[in-house]
């Protein structure tokens, strides 16, 4: 019996993909169709796999949480929590500094108006964080977006969102001091986020 080779096909070119609404996506999570082990986000109405978190990623999240812990009295903090940004855009940012809300988001997911700062820790996701997520965060009016480049141990700080981009972009590393706009009293050396 001979085997017939199966040609490789670019499915995207021959068939339209189904786009999901934010409500559909959140319902799939609520009903258990999608779970934490799925590691996906909704980007442009499409369910997209996220890069797996490695040791540097986990280490960074622990360090950044320690750095921001003094703000727990005045802000809510979420690590890899779900954020509804806009229709068809539901992300799980690595770190969010959020406006304090009574009940601490027990009955409603945070949305763009709740966010003071988003941080994405980037290893293999650097290109996605810069080219896909950045304009979405900027269009949503997220006031401050930091990308932690884990390989080079630097923070790329984006501020002043306007028309799908950030007008102010700065790169900081080592002993450079940084402070979030929402809490200028918290100042730390960039290296502390990577220790």
Topology:
Layout (H helix, E strand, L loop, with lengths): L10 H4 L7 H9 L9 E4 L2 E4 L5 H14 L6 E5 L3 E4 L2 E3 L3 E5 L15 E8 L3 H14 L4 E6 L4 E9 L2 E9 L3 E2 L9 E2 L6
Parallel strand pairs: 7-8
Antiparallel strand pairs: 1-2, 3-6, 4-5, 6-7, 8-9, 9-10, 11-12
Question: What features would you describe in this structure?
Answer:
- The chain is of the alpha+beta class and 195 residues long.
- It has helices at 11-14, 22-30, 55-68, 126-139; strands at residues 40-43, 46-49, 75-79, 83-86, 89-91, 95-99, 115-122, 144-149, 154-162, 165-173, 177-178, 188-189.
- β9 (154-162) and β10 form a beta hairpin.
Structure summary:
The chain is α+β, with helices and mostly antiparallel strands and 195 residues long. The chain is built from four helices and twelve strands; from the N terminus they run ααββαβββββαβββββ. The chain has one domain: tt1808, chain A (Alpha-Beta Complex).
Number of domains: 1
CATH superfamily: tt1808, chain A
Number of helices: 4
> If strands are numbered along the chain, what order do they take across the biggest sheet?
3-6-7-8-9-10
Oligomer: single chain
Radius of gyration: 18 Å
CATH fold category name = tt1808, chain A
Strand content: 25-35%
- Give the low-confidence spans: none
Overall morphology: globular
Structural class determined from secondary elements: alpha+beta
Sheet with the most strands, sense and barrel status: 6 strands, mixed
CATH architecture: Alpha-Beta Complex
**Strands, total number:** 12
Query: How much helical structure, as a percent, in the residues?
Result: 10-25%
- For the record, give the distance between the C-alpha atoms at the N and C termini, rounded to a whole number: 60 Å
CATH class: Alpha Beta
Strand-and-helix sequence, N→C? HHEEHEEEEEHEEEEE
* Average pLDDT reading: 86
């Amino acid at each position: 019996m001979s085997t017939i080779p199966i040609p490789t096909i670019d499915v995207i070119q021959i068939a339209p993909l189904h786009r999901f609404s934010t409500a559909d996506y959140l319902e799939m999570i609520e009903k258990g169709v999608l779970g934490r082990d799925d590691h996906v986000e909704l980007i442009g109405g499409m369910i997209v796999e996220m890069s797996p978190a490695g040791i540097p990623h986990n280490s960074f999240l622990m360090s950044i949480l320690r750095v921001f812990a003094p703000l727990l009295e005045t802000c809510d903090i979420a690590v890899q929590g779900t954020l509804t940004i806009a229709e068809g855009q539901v992300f799980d940012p690595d770190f969010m500094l959020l406006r304090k809300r009574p009940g601490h988001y027990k009955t409603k997911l945070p949305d763009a108006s709740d966010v003071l700062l988003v941080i994405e820790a980037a290893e293999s996701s650097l290109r996605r964080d810069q080219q896909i997520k950045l304009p979405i965060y900027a269009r949503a009016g997220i006031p401050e977006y930091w990308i932690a480049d884990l390989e080079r141990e630097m923070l790329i700080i984006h501020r002043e969102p306007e028309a799908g981009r950030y007008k102010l972009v700065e790169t900081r590393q080592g002993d450079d001091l940084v402070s979030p706009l929402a809490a200028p009293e918290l100042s730390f050396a960039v290296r502390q986020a990577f220790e």
